[in-house]
User: What shape does this take?
Amino acid sequence: MFRYIRRGKPDAGFPLFESESLKWPGFVEFDDVNGKVLTYSAQDSIYKVFDLKNYTMLYSISDTDVQEIKISPGIMLLILNRSSGYVPLKILSIEDGTILKDFKHLLHRNKKVDFIEQFNEKLLVKQENENLQILDVRHTGIREVSRTDFMTPSAFIFLYENQLFLTFRNRTVAVWNFRGELVTSFEDHLLWHPDCNTNNIYITSDQDLIISYCKADSDDQWMEGNAGSINISNILTGKCLAKINATNGSPKDEECSSSTGSSKQSRLMMRSTVAAALEDITALFYDEERNEIYTGNRHGLVHVWSN
Assistant: This one.
């Protein structure tokens, strides 16, 4: 796809899921770990699973009680509508939708559920003003982490290679293990978006580096205006390894396509200042083979950052 963007031809690809009604609150989720695509049509309350290789539909899930679906390697967790004292849960095979386990998790009555997350056989459950519970669904063991040590994050990223998970809260990132222990906090990685926009975060395939759109150093703010920085940090140590900001960055020519009324694409080539390129970034991607970082902003421009 990037070669088409470079040529100014983003429409050179092919359409997908044309038969599906995916408008909000419907969605499409690409799962490269399992090689699957999950879609949800809010119009008819149907989830469908497709093969990521050829986009053929494998099976569908039609259940109006399904509140949310979580995907892990090999399995899916179905979170059903909560009853007064418990939440029904189902674990399905990601390959064919077969139910592997059907059980209920007890809850404190009259307290909202902050989150239910799944990582392989581990289930993380947190209710309002309660301790974090880490369940082993195979052996039914439960470990609790004090609510003062683990506060509800706004987002998670699971690190399957390292058996760890990232939490995002108030622009900060932390790394935890499944014993409920804090593994890493980052020395210089204050995210730009307070609500953790994961479109602006990239984890390398080895899961050793995190690349994020961050707030610039306070010492640089006077010269950068509204520009942020792109920070690269080691996940296991929390050390900041590199940073692209207005004083050291130099993107390649940026390319974008704009549509006329007849949908004819015209290629725009322009140069912009580094500070402008670091403003209003809405998406970030790292090409590990080419060692290039791609950023897109709210104006529809794509910048390429390269050595």
Observations:
- Residues 34 and 201 are 21 Å apart (CA to CA).
- The radius of gyration is 21 Å.
